[in-house]
Predict the 3D structure of the following.
Amino acid sequence: MGSQRVTNPAGKELQALFGERLKQQEPLAKHTSFRIGGPADFWVQVERPEEIAAVDNWASYVGVRWWLLGGGTNVLVSDLGVRGIVFRLGRSFAFSEWRFNGTRAYVRAGASLPLKKLVLQAVEQDFTGLEFAEGIPGTVGGGLLMNAGAFGGELADVVRAVELITPRGQHRRASVDELQFGYRHFSLPRGTVVTAVEFVLCRAPHEVVWERYRRAKEKRERTQPRGLPNAGSIFKNPPGDSAGRLIEAVGLKGYRIGQAMFSPKHANFIVNLGGARAQDVRQLMREAQKRVLERFGVDLEPEVRLIGEWSE
Ligand SMILES: Cc1cc2nc3c(=O)[nH]c(=O)nc-3n(C[C@H](O)[C@H](O)[C@H](O)COP(=O)(O)OP(=O)(O)OC[C@H]3O[C@@H](n4cnc5c(N)ncnc54)[C@H](O)[C@@H]3O)c2cc1C
């Protein structure tokens, strides 16, 4: 599909901009950790900041929406796919450079850099502050958007500033006092793209940093399912409780619809047993929300982001 000739007129303009990089009817299942999702009308990996503006201009001109994916590890893409254009920041220097300032412990990381890589680099250089994020897949940009966290830590604790491209195509640096984080949430106006994140870490003795990293790794391996495609926690934890505990308590651990199943290892994970449909996952989510609301009066809020066209 990737290098097929684009025949519709609007697509031709995009192809003039991106050439062979532009793909039509690209299956998004390929770009998500869930391995679920229908096709995007158009898909492109942008390599330069100006290309973000080009996508934005094209989408407003044609009257369609654009969507941005990071690592695709926190999304559920509809079986019907996405109308409009989906893009991802490529691994060019512009988006994936990372730099440590050894004396002041400041780190600047491009938004497309894998978060795991940043964590490992920090640990190897005896910087503490990011060890909790060991094993969180996806990119620095996606991690920021989700305020990714684990084991009592979250990215908001160590972010100092964010570099952005605004909906008007302006480059901006926003410092931490302008940023609004919540639990698995970061406020960002629609149409804004994060291009880099600055972190502030602390130097610590080598053994201390490695021990924190090792403990996080060991805990993740013990508690989370491995081997089957998933998107991490499906629901946010309600205040003072855990979504996994509630889902298990209503009898859904191991429960299955089609090829999607609440993991027998951790009930707040839905795993794709092979060929699961987004619709199966949504039905499982609805079932959990219904049962948990009826039994505990708790409204489970999805952590995973729904993308694309949904029939209901
Ligand atoms: C096995 C597994 C374990 C996980 N464990 C954890 C965990 O412990 N803790 C945790 O918090 N999460 C966890 N997750 C969920 C997920 O990995 C995180 O939320 C991750 O930070 C998402 O990053 P991503 O790059 O994949 O973002 P995506 O899923 O691609 O996107 C998430 C959102 O961010 C937006 N976005 C992405 N990049 C940018 C950007 N540059 N600018 C603006 N918006 C952007 C997207 O549009 C989308 O709305 C896990 C997932 C899996 C599969």
About this structure: The pocket of flavin-adenine dinucleotide is lined by residues 33, 68-75, 89, 111, 136-139, 141-143, 145-146, 148-150, 184, 193-194, 230-232, 305 (CB under 6 Å). The chain has a mean pLDDT of 93. The chain has three domains: 9-89, 93-223, 243-307. Residues 224 and 266 are 6 Å apart (CA to CA).
